[in-house]
């Protein structure tokens, strides 16, 4: 039996270069074409079987790869067709690695994801710093196929591997005074060169937050994998939040800190421009961004090559599960 024992950090830069192949337009076209063909076939394939385009470089430590292979199926998102690997890992927002959509895939190899630990603090009975291995020992991984709707009006269907954030929160035993959870990304400009960019208007590290009921909602997950593989760095390795009914910027990447707090936390985009980005950021076709409509979206990758748009759904189509969290709130004001 052949076991891959190389660590991510052993990979030579020259071996990483082929990942650039994901980025060029021809590759995107090929992926889009394959997707169109796949749409004609009976849709039985469980996304974990990775229909095509395995990563050029196997990422992540072997123990994590093995744990991800043990992830089980779930019923979430079975009716949506996931975007191809190349689109999900080649078209990203991760400003710590640059502002262009292809920058994260080109630059995120400088992020060192192993070893990794997360410091959990604030209003809880069990604060402390925990390794990723320790965190994953206490949870069960499953596949969740979710729609990701960026505030910029594009969207993708992504087959995450992860676990409910609620499972981690329960272990930390938050106090009843904890009303919000705040998250922060790694701060290290040697690994994240975008954090020293002169053009950046963002105050690093990237921060996000959720109300406690949102954080413990069963749809809210922490992801460690994608298409049955370890999460690529550009997608927020090794641990990122996924909140599918909110705009993508809530789904903070490469998390190193989680705090339970009493007051609504400062969050990166709300702080950068509060008129354009609210704390809640629930997907809402009825509330336009000041500079563009949110009524429709481009579903990628096909939407990269045509002007076709699909209607945006309230709460990104997850309203049945989450609308009750916001009963009595004016969502045009609390956007
Ligand atoms: N730390 C950090 N997390 C981040 C971002 C970022 O720039 N930095 N971008 C956000 C935005 S705007 C989106 S749309 C999603 C994109 O996730 P993806 O690249 O995996 O599709 O990540 C979010 N998480
Ligand atoms: Mo976004």
UniProtKB/TrEMBL annotation:
Protein name (Swiss-Prot/TrEMBL)? Protein-methionine-sulfoxide reductase catalytic subunit MsrP
The record's account of how the chain is modified after translation = Predicted to be exported by the Tat system. The position of the signal peptide cleavage has not been experimentally proven.
Keywords from UniProt, A to Z, are: Metal-binding, Molybdenum, Oxidoreductase, Signal
Q: Which residues form a coiled coil?
A: none
User: Which sites bind Mo-molybdopterin?
Assistant: 92, 95-96, 150, 185, 235, 240, 251-253
Domain Oxidoreductase molybdopterin-binding: residue ranges? 111-269
* Segments crossing the lipid bilayer: none
Q: Which GO terms describe its molecular function?
A: metal ion binding; molybdopterin cofactor binding; oxidoreductase activity, acting on a sulfur group of donors, quinone or similar compound as acceptor
Q: What is its EC number?
A: 1.8.5.-
| Gene3D superfamilies the record matches | Oxidoreductase, molybdopterin-binding domain (3.90.420.10)
Primary enzyme class: oxidoreductase
SUPFAM superfamilies registered for this protein in UniProt = Oxidoreductase molybdopterin-binding domain
Its subunit composition reads:
Heterodimer of a catalytic subunit (MsrP) and a heme-binding subunit (MsrQ).
Name the cofactor(s) required for activity, per the record.
Mo-molybdopterin
Q: Which organism is it from?
A: Parathalassolituus penaei
Q: Name one Pfam family in it.
A: Oxidored_molyb
What family classification does the UniProt entry report for this protein? Belongs to the MsrP family.
Which reaction does this enzyme catalyse, per its entry?
A: L-methionyl-[protein] + a quinone + H2O = L-methionyl-(R)-S-oxide-[protein] + a quinol; L-methionyl-[protein] + a quinone + H2O = L-methionyl-(S)-S-oxide-[protein] + a quinol
Single Gene Ontology BP annotation? protein repair
């Amino acid at each position: 039996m052949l076991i891959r024992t190389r660590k991510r950090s052993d990979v030579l830069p020259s071996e990483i270069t082929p990942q650039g192949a994901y980025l060029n337009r021809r590759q995107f076209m090929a992926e889009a074409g394959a997707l169109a063909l796949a749409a004609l076939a009976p849709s039985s394939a469980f996304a974990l079987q990775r229909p095509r385009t395995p990563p050029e470089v196997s990422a992540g430590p072997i123990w994590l790869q093995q744990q991800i292979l043990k992830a089980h199926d779930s019923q979430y998102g079975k009716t949506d067709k996931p975007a191809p690997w190349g689109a999900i890992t080649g078209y990203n927002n991760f400003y710590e690695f640059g502002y262009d959509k292809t920058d994260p895939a080109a630059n995120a190899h400088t992020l060192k994801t192993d070893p990794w630990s997360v410091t959990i603090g604030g209003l809880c009975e069990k604060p402390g710093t925990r390794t990723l291995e320790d965190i994953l020992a206490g949870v069960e991984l499953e596949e969740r196929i979710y729609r990701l709707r960026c505030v910029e009006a594009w969207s993708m269907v992504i087959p995450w591997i992860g676990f409910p954030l609620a499972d981690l929160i329960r272990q930390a035993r938050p106090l009843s005074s904890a009303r919000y959870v705040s998250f922060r990304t790694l701060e290290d400009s040697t690994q994240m060169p975008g954090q020293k960019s002169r053009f950046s208007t963002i105050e690093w590290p990237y921060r996000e937050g959720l109300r406690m009921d949102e954080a413990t909602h069963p749809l809210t997950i922490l992801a460690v994998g994608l298409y049955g593989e370890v999460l690529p760095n550009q997608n927020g390795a090794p641990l990122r939040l996924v909140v599918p009914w909110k705009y993508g910027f809530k789904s903070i990447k490469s998390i190193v800190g989680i705090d339970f707090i009493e007051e609504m936390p400062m969050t990166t985009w709300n702080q950068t421009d509060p008129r354009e980005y609210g704390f809640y950021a629930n997907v809402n076709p009825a509330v336009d961004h000041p500079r563009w409509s949110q009524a429709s979206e481009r579903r990628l990758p096909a939407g990269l090559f045509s002007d076709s748009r699909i209607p945006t759904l309230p709460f990104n189509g997850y309203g049945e599960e989450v609308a009750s969290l916001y009963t009595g709130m004016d969502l045009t004001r609390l956007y």
